[in-house]
Design goal:
It is a single chain. The protein is of the alpha/beta class and about 230 residues long. The chain has 2 domains: about 140 residues, Rossmann fold; about 80 residues, DNA polymerase, domain 1 (Orthogonal Bundle). It is about 45% helix and about 10% strand. The protein contains 8 helices and 6 strands. It has a 6-stranded parallel beta sheet, sandwiched between helices. Strand 4, helix 8 and strand 5 form a beta-alpha-beta unit. Helix 1 packs parallel to helix 3 and helix 3 runs antiparallel to helix 4. It starts with a strand and ends in an 11-residue tail after the last strand.
Length: about 230
């Protein structure tokens, strides 16, 4: 088989991530105890805050804590004490303490793929937080390069292509997010493998583009990459 460039997402592709943010949000809703808004309505308000702030501050647990505090200031129906804001921030900080849980089949599949193809880890978020996750995962040895960016858009994919000297026609982006992993990669000329995750963040969901069928593969498990590459 031709040696390909495989570009792999990290959060919710290689290891669990958003489930811990969901747990923090559930704790926030319980603490807020809003008299009229349900969890979905609160989530919608928080999504608007996160969408606006991500353009300035980016992603990660610390920024999520800041967003929860802003949401609390907006929705709290009681006098806000400094201790309230610290408690709200604490829900996000607990994410950093969670064990790093690899998704089943990931390590075995990476070991297999790394002998056959060139692997690049491509993730977005807080650089130090993402570096720590990579170190804790023990998966760094399977990748020839790791790139952490503030946002994964067409421009960042094109920059990665130039940096790594990648031929888009023989390269594949592998990930769980239509917004960050699949659609911009396809627009940048890459092929893509979509592996959906049940807890993908709301703001990472969007309609998949409709490219030539051969350029987009949809799998149900990371381990299924054995059958493609």
């Amino acid at each position: 088989m031709e040696r390909l460039n495989l570009i792999v997402d990290a959060d919710d592709t290689l290891w669990e991530n958003n489930v811990y943010f969901d747990q923090a949000f559930a704790a926030f809703v319980a603490y807020l105890e809003h008299s009229t808004l349900n969890a979905d309505e609160i989530r919608g308000i928080l999504d608007e805050i996160e969408l606006a702030n991500s353009r300035v501050h980016g992603y990660g647990s610390l920024n999520f804590g800041r967003n929860l505090q802003q949401c609390y200031r907006k929705l709290a129906e009681r006098e806000i004490a400094p201790s309230d804001l610290e408690s709200v921030k604490g829900f996000a900080l607990r994410i950093l303490e969670q064990p790093l849980e690899l998704i089943p089949g990931v390590e075995e599949t990476l070991a297999y793929l790394s002998h056959r193809h060139d692997l690049t880890l491509f993730t977005k978020g807080n650089a130090e937080e993402q570096k720590t996750k990579i170190e804790r995962s023990g998966l760094g040895e399977y990748f020839s390069h790791a790139e952490i960016v503030k946002e994964k858009n067409v421009e960042s994919y094109q920059a990665l292509i130039d940096l790594r000297g990648i031929s888009p026609e023989s390269a594949w982006m592998i990930g769980n997010s239509p917004k960050s992993d699949i659609n911009p990669a396809l627009e940048a000329g890459l092929n893509a493998v979509f592996i959906p995750h049940s807890t993908t963040w709301t703001l990472e969901r969007e309609q998949l583009r409709d490219p030539e069928p051969r350029r987009l593969v949809i799998l149900q498990r990371f381990a299924d990459l054995h059958n493609v590459f």
